[in-house]
């Protein structure tokens, strides 16, 4: 959910802040964790047998039993980014305040890029130790509306700590003005986005089913007028906000075919999604002449959270004969088909990371690569119980950050396991399941290179001269930069989670 914040500009005597939400859609943690409280959650595009199919592969909903479920999941994140020591002479000197650029014609001009002296940075350059504990509630149901010809599915992953977090940061030398640290690009606040998926599906023929759904989130637009009577006293301001909240949708589609009773093939398409915040500050000064036709100074910006590019998935599963033991009377009452004694499935997911936009809605200058992530999983029915396990590998789309940018990302190797069993409570038959989840961030190390496509930016030009004497400034030859990723860094870590689910009687 994009949100808008109104901030008064320090020099404004009167300002109007106009904020307009753009398309706001995000699948949140689902593309990172899979379906955390579902069997074969890492391989749900091929093996979904419950409400999780509503997001990952709605074409599988006609094969899922009617159910309503609620779950709880805790995910612990441990990510480390270790910075390489900086060589001497790289820090920006305090004399940069006294410098101007010497132009070829002998004139001077002020610096267009304004680095801070290394001793004046608001935050020290330091390693990153990302320590998070995220808890989630999962809710879902599958409801046949007309046998298996029309089935409704719903699935939600709800962060319990906050409905959504958004923590923007720059991935180059601009980080010096803020945290002055590196952050994991595809983790962090992306794990704290609410996901709501609603889908419809049906079997067209005995061997073909189709489905479509929408990933739902909340968009907010606010139009806020701010009047600051005295620029020297920012504590006094008059504010009139107009806020509008709307639902926005990201569609996706799927089909599944069964050319043989023991074989199922499927494909999915999820269109690109993101949570965008578009804003415009209208700065008005007390006694200022504006350009012709203007009555204020505009400042436009865009923030993007959880941008998820277009994804195309394919899946295949093979299965054994139906299970004969479905729990006595419960089996007799149930109208849903018996699960297979065993099932094995695999999927591949193409993600077009080449269209990625970061948290400041900027396209990385060194293009990212589209990736193919893969997963393999299986399940076996032991009496009335079900045991399943998955493994998955997600490569990193981020090229080695040998130049100006510091997009930190690691390939991920994941595994999950689950155990499900029926229980009788208060004379009714429930289902319960326990789940374990783990991911390894494959260690990675990069070093900056002067021959990179976009090398680290020299923030203090060698032709800098003293603004008074005109003499060359000392200590400006060579590279000076506050880029926190220079001269290199390493990253790695892990994610671990556990959860349970309760399925209500059918």
From TrEMBL:
Transport listed as a keyword: no
Domain of life: Bacteria
Feature: compositional bias, Basic and acidic residues: 323-332
Residue span of region Disordered: 86-130, 312-338
Keyword presence, Ubl conjugation: no
Signal peptide: 1-26
Keywords of this entry: Signal
Name this protein carries in UniProt: Secreted protein
The organism of origin for this protein: Sorangium cellulosum (strain So ce56)
Organism ancestry: Bacteria, Pseudomonadati, Myxococcota, Polyangia, Polyangiales
């Amino acid at each position: 959910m994009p949100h808008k914040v109104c901030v008064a500009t320090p020099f404004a005597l009167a300002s109007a802040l106009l904020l307009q939400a753009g398309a706001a859609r995000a699948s949140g943690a689902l593309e990172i964790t899979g379906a955390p409280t579902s069997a074969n959650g890492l391989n749900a595009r091929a093996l979904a047998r419950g409400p999780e199919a509503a997001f990952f592969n709605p074409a599988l909903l006609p094969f899922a039993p009617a159910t309503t479920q609620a779950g709880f999941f805790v995910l612990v994140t441990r990510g480390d980014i270790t910075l390489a020591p900086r060589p001497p002479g790289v820090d920006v000197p305090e004399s940069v305040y006294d410098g101007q650029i010497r132009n070829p014609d002998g004139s001077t001009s002020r610096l267009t890029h304004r680095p801070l002296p290394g001793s004046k940075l608001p935050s020290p350059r330091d390693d990153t130790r990302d320590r998070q504990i995220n808890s989630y509630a999962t809710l879902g149901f599958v409801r046949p509306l007309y046998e298996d010809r029309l089935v409704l599915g719903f699935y939600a992953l709800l962060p319990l700590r906050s409905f959504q977090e958004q923590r923007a940061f720059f991935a180059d030398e601009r980080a010096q003005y803020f945290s002055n640290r590196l952050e994991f690009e595809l983790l962090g606040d992306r794990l704290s986005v609410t996901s709501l998926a609603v889908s419809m599906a049906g079997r067209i023929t005995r061997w073909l089913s189709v489905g479509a759904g929408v990933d739902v989130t909340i968009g907010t637009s606010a139009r806020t007028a701010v009047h600051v009577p005295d620029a020297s006293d920012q504590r006094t301001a008059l504010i009139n906000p107009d806020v509008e909240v709307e639902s926005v949708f990201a569609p996706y589609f799927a089909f599944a075919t069964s050319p043989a009773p023991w074989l199922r093939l499927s494909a999915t398409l999820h269109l690109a999604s993101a949570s965008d915040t578009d804003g415009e500050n209208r700065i008005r000064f007390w006694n200022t002449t504006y350009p012709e036709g203007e009555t204020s100074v505009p400042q436009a910006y865009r923030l993007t959270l959880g941008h998820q590019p277009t994804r195309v998935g394919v899946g295949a599963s093979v299965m054994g004969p139906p299970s004969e033991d479905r729990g006595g009377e419960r089996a007799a009452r149930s109208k849903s088909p018996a699960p297979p004694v065993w099932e094995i499935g695999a999927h591949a997911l193409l993600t077009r990371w080449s269209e990625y936009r970061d948290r400041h809605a900027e396209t990385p200058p060194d293009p990212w690569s589209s990736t193919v992530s893969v997963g393999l999983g299986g399940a076996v029915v032991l009496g009335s119980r079900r045991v399943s396990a998955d493994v998955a590998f997600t490569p990193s789309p981020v090229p080695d950050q040998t130049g100006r940018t510091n997009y930190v990302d690691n390939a991920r190797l994941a595994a999950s396991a689950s155990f499900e069993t029926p229980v009788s409570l208060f004379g009714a038959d429930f289902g319960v399941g326990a789940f374990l989840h783990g991911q390894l961030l494959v260690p990675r190390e990069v070093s900056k290179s002067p021959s990179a496509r976009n090398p680290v930016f020299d923030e203090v030009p060698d032709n800098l001269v003293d603004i008074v004497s005109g003499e060359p400034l000392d200590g400006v030859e060579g590279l000076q930069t506050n880029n926190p990723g220079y001269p290199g860094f390493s990253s790695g870590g892990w994610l671990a989670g556990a959860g349970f689910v309760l399925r209500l009687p059918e």
